[in-house]
Write a structure and sequence with these properties.
The structure is a single chain. With 507 residues, this protein is an alpha+beta fold. Strands 1, 15, 16, 19 and 20 form a five-stranded antiparallel beta sheet that branches. Strands 10-13-14-17-18 form a five-stranded mixed beta sheet, sandwiched between helices. A four-stranded antiparallel beta sheet has the order 6-5-7-8. Strand 5 and strand 6 form a beta hairpin. The termini are far apart.
Length: 507
């Protein structure tokens, strides 16, 4: 053997030795355990099931918010962040009187709208399957299908008393993260609240609605004017900022999540409110569990001067607090009420804390109404794991080569999230609720004093909880689908007690 070959063998051997010596000593033990579990466990487990369980345990050791994201959940998460789904754009509700599934509206430019499906049509079947025994979420599972999928809709049109068949192809439909009071029949949202029944604005003077102090946190500056950038609504007379009925013109925006298009949606709505002389804004964050961090920080900047930090961050690499600023232009200088509840979490809490802190500091006019938020004050980075082999459907396959080929026929993408930092409010309030925290500890966002409004305290709910829950579900379906008549819009106050309390701030 040539001497140079011997030298190469020695070099490779040395490199291999150091690779093993420097490698993770637990990797071999991990593989050993997996093999033993696979071959000896009382219950047969696939490699994929063992992989999922192992990764979940590893990430769960970091904290309760670090976790493995399996492929199906990862796909759903990406669709939520990108704010797009495959759908035919048909929105339905269950009519209580007849127990029929009615079309409330169809979304603009959707295949359902282009085909000619009309509000009030009865949806009889999809692909020949009747929908009588399906719940509304199950029906939407048939409506929202992958892009390009053809689905056959059978509808009954009351005006002609005839059944019509529509072959519809699912298209890419944008998901709105900023919704309003109720949909119009054309599929767009109404973003203005109806007048509060039986209320007037301090004798009919709407201007007083945003020049008075809140119970504790809107403090006048030394010259008697509101400090910071708070300015009177409209042109300064009693006719500005109100409608013909002497009621405040209150804009209502519900943020369902924080996705890639949320900043653009919010920017357009705030400009719309300014152009239409809205008196104030109710920003509904109830049920919003978070989403992407950057949109939340950007929206904070739309309410405060951009030389003020929107949040303070403590990273895993440093104990020092870092001020985080937003580059967004301040668009809203009128009163804002933030609705929160115990499901308001993460990025939503950042936004609520920012507005509440600067409301208490007198920079803006803002309060929080509702109940204490969830208390998730950590930031997670999401990492894409790329394609993951899927062997869950191959339990009966024994040939190793065939097994390997089939696994890679349709790999799925997965991911994981790791907590990398903790955030505090601009006033350095602790938001995160640690596992051993008590109700007396500082965590989450508390509503402003005097503005507590727990959902369970709704008087109508107290009378008959079971009946209320059914009526609430029906009302919600009508509101979202476009089937709610305009003369019923004020019923939102009967069902949403915290919203009613928030509106009272402007009266």
């Amino acid at each position: 053997m040539p001497r140079k070959h011997i030298y190469w063998i020695i070099v490779v051997a040395i490199i291999s030795f150091f690779s093993v010596w420097c490698g993770d000593p637990y990797a071999g033990a991990f593989r050993y355990i997996v093999r033993k579990v696979r071959s000896n466990a009382i219950r047969s487990l696939s490699e994929r099931e063992l992989f999922d369980a192992s990764i979940s345990g590893l990430l769960g050791a970091v904290d309760e918010n670090s976790s493995y994201i399996p492929p199906q959940t990862y796909d759903e998460l990406n669709r939520e962040f990108h704010q797009e789904i495959g759908s035919t754009g048909v929105l339905v509700y269950r009519e209580s009187e007849t127990d029929k599934n009615r079309v409330g509206c169809t979304l603009p430019r959707s295949s359902g709208r282009l085909a000619g499906i009309l509000p009030g049509d009865e949806l009889v079947s999809i692909d020949g399957d009747t929908l009588e025994n399906l719940m509304i979420p199950e029906i939407y599972a048939r409506i929202n299908v992958p892009v390009g999928t053809e689905t056959i809709y059978e509808i009954f049109r009351p005006s002609t008393r005839k059944k019509i068949t529509f072959p519809l192809i699912s298209q890419r439909i944008p998901i709105e993260s900023a919704t309003g009071v109720a949909r119009f029949s054309d599929g767009t949202w109404n973003y203005y609240l109806p007048p509060l029944p039986g209320k007037t604005v301090n004798g009919g003077n709407a201007e007083n609605a945003e020049n008075r102090e809140s119970p504790e946190n809107v403090k006048p500056a030394g010259n008697g004017e509101l400090s910071g950038n708070v300015k009177p609504v409209g042109n300064g007379n009693s006719e500005s900022g109100k409608n013909a009925e002497n009621t405040p013109k209150i804009m209502y925006v519900r943020l369902e999540t924080f996705g890639e298009k949320t900043v653009q949606e919010m920017r357009q709505l705030l400009r719309k409110g300014n152009a239409e002389n809205a008196t104030g804004l109710i920003l509904d964050l109830t049920g919003n569990g978070g989403g992407l961090l950057e949109p939340a920080l950007a929206i904070c900047g739309m309410f405060i001067p951009n030389d003020l930090p929107v949040v303070k961050v403590r990273s895993a690499k440093s104990e020092e607090l870092e001020d985080v600023f937003s580059s967004q232009e301040q668009l809203w200088k009128k009163p804002v009420v933030v609705l929160v509840d115990d499901n308001t979490a993460s990025a939503s809490e950042i936004l609520a804390a920012c507005l509440q802190d600067y409301g208490q500091n007198g920079v803006i006019q803002a309060i929080c109404v509702g109940e204490r938020t969830y208390g998730k004050g950590t930031i997670q980075d999401i990492f894409d794991m790329g394609p993951i082999p899927d062997d869950r459907y191959l339990a009966s396959e024994t040939d190793p080569r065939t097994l390997w080929d089939k696994i890679w026929e349709k790999p799925l993408r997965g991911g994981f999230r790791i907590s990398v930092a903790m955030y505090l409010s601009p006033n350095e309030r602790m938001i995160h609720r640690f596992p051993d925290a008590t109700d007396a500890d500082e965590w989450g966002i508390q509503p402003n004093s005097g503005w507590e409004a727990p959902w369970k305290e709704n008087p109508r709910r107290k009378e008959n909880p079971r009946k209320f829950q059914g009526e609430l579900l029906e009302f919600g379906q009508l509101r979202v689908s476009g089937g709610l008549r305009h003369d019923r819009w004020a019923e939102v106050y009967d069902f949403n007690w915290p919203l009613k309390r928030a509106v009272e701030y402007f009266y």
